[in-house]
Amino acid sequence: MSPIDEQHPDEAPELSAEAHDHGHDDDHGHHEQSFIWKYVFSTDHKVIGIQYGITALLFLALGFALMMIMRWQLGNPGQPVPFIGGWLGQANAPGGIILPEFYNQLGAMHGTIMVFLGVVPLAVGAFGNYVVPLQIGAPDMAFPKLNMASYWVYFLGGVVMLASFFAPGGAANSGWTSYPPLSVAVATEGQTYWLIGMIFLITSSLLGSVNFITTIVQLRAPGMTWMRLPFFVWAQLVTAFLLLLAFPPLEAAGVFQLMDRVLGTSFFLPSGLIVSNQVLQVAGGGSALLWQHLFWFLAHPEVYVLVLPAMGIIAEIIANNTRKPLWGYKPLVYSTIFLGFMSFIVWAHHMFLTGMGTVMNAFFQTTTMIISIPSVVILTALLISLWGASIRFNTPMLFALAFLPMFGIGGLTGLPLGLAPADIFLHDTYYVIGHFHYVVAPGTIFALFAGIYYWYPKVTGRRMSEMLGKIHFWTSLVFINGVFMPMFLQGFAGVSRRLYDGGATYSHAQGVLEWNAFMSNSAFLLGLAQLPFIFNFFWSIKMGEAVDSNPWRATTLEWAATTSPPLGHGNFETVPVVYRGPYEYSVPGCDEDYLPQNMAVQEG
Amino acid sequence: MEIPYTVEVRPDTGLYNAKMGIWLFLASEVMLFGALFSSYIILRTGNPDWVQHSMNVPLATLNTMILISSSVTVIMSWASLRLNNFARFRMFLGGTLLLAAGFMVVKGIEYSQEFSQGLFPWSDNYMGIYFTLTGLHGLHVVGGMVVFGYLLGPGAKMWKTAPEQFTNRIECVGLYWHFVDLVWIFLFPSLYLL
Amino acid sequence: MGGHNSPEDIKKETRTYLLVFAALATLTVITVTVSYLDLNRTQAIIVALFIASIKAGLVAAFFMHLLSEEKFIYSVLLLTLVLFAALFILPIGNYADALGEHFVMEGVEHGEPGAH
Fold it and tell me: Which chains form contacts with chain C, at 3 or more CB pairs under 8 Å?
């Protein structure tokens, strides 16, 4: 971890940013802070970004491990899990053979951990926090203490989620979607932990989103106009609005479900529901569909939260490694804004089969088709940006290039799902799992890897090994397709998702069962493929090639205006002034093939 | 380096950071209470056996008046600071805190009345929604009270060191408080009168 | 903030606040009184929500100073209101197919899962 300079001790807490409201001068800022205030309860966006990053990567690894256990069962049904089977506990896996109930817990927690504890905290909490203030020329986020609070509330939410594994009956087991009546009337105590954990995580997101929007609007350096913002910042801005306005309905729904479970209310329980041959003793009159509407009102914008920061990262890396401005900056920006807005009115395409009625189905099908347009514009602009470029095939660029077709597959496979008639056949099958994993796994996660390789030198002052990076890339690319491509085949055959036995008891699945072992082996190899990355990540902190402040010869402020790592207190020696757009590469008449945003040019 | 625009406004937006922050937060609260009201409509119209209990309208009307008055006192506390009158500020903010406490007391009386009649959140969905909506609103009132207490107590030190920033804080907490009042303005007829 | 802090300005503002308070109190009395009249369901809802909207508008415009707020805040609130409206598509949408039909509720067996 890079040494970060002394922090200025925080003064007044709460609503607004703590300001140095002192009449006396600067030597105030140079006394040593204790380890706790400097690294644990830091209010510096860079430290908080790293905290988010490490925590999120750990959760991603855990989520991956949970999936591996599931895939073991799917590929080797009824076989004891090797090595760790004994650690899973007799209640979950007697003799190391996982029980269906445990499989369900793994499924629910894999999804929850990956989405809410892994990808979003990494994409927004880590990358957003670390890079955005630097890219806009700000000394920190607008509300540093709120930033710290966001991280610790996230951490607490994670603790509660993990604790659910030790609750009687185990963790949540009703999918990451927690649909009632199952999640209310049948699920065990772990589900309550899940709801409480979600409330913490939602709160963390809300606090963070207020911070991001205020920072981006208010703290841009002089000359940093809206149309000179790096696309990454635009992506984070729209993402923050999605988090701000889409999460609250889920918070409301979470409270309702918590009350249903703990207090015996019936918000989501209809009258006369029979569970285990007995009529449920509740007042009834509730609506299970109400949960779905409230859940998906968030969860659809959430998937754009998953992908927009990734697109932002890719855009930065493509511009930098093509040595050309991005093609279609304005269409990119306007598409992103339009996409963000549309994402709020497509949610019920997750509910085509609930019997909502043809009016609702038609409305949401239409909006879903419309929303595919900005996504395609964004992907196309990024693709065209490659035309005529002098491409540098370094590790971040390899991941960025792979993102394009992988996200393309993910996006295209979403189209039949967005059309109600096709969805009748495909809903709740492995086709859906294939679709969304393509966008998130070889999509977003590849983009996050790209971002790690790209910004690592900024954070640590050292490069990661290119050789290990390329091994990591090629093996991951091959094996990740091995895991997810066959899912489309299984989905077309009609194999349902969330099946403990992978479809073995269904006659329509027999023809595609052989893919289970193939996918499980690919998943295992994919896990192995991460080892060079993990080694590289830690080894390079001390042994990586030392670099100057701008090893990629990039134009944006985080590279061009500050050291690697950036100055501890305030990021910049002097406030940068911005003179031009973010991607002035290969400018005719210029000596270098890049012109930083903050470089003043002497007029002739 | 100081965070810019903590006190002075940024020229192109005309806002200081905390003001933007509090409005953004209120926007998210609009979505929260919107979801709750929307759920109320769905649950009520979707259930042919819905029972609309008659609630204590006089007490709720009293509470409405209490909240409206507290909106006046909180904004007067901000006006007092702008006149450099710290004593009047304390009086008005203290008054707001007392009125808020009064609101919670009345709510407590209401709840205990309902409990003694055997009406609990699990009795039926009307009571469920009633307790959830008023409960969450009440939590927001308590949250406001905590912040008022802080700004009257330890937080008031900032008046000496950074008076303009302190005044901004009162403006922001006032905005929050008016929103709490606003939610009640819709809650009251929806739950008690319709 | 900043500009209008003279005692005269504050006095004028205070007068406005007190007038708004009077209006809010009056409207509260009206809304409670109206609820005791025998209006049908639809009329009662429209009147109650109409009065509530006026009250809310007064609080927003004068207490929250929305009348003289900045463009950015207006934009955020506009976006929020549009999305707030989207949240109400749910109740309408849930019954859109049945609009105009005469509903006969016969218990759980005939309705949507969980809803009717």
Answer: A, B
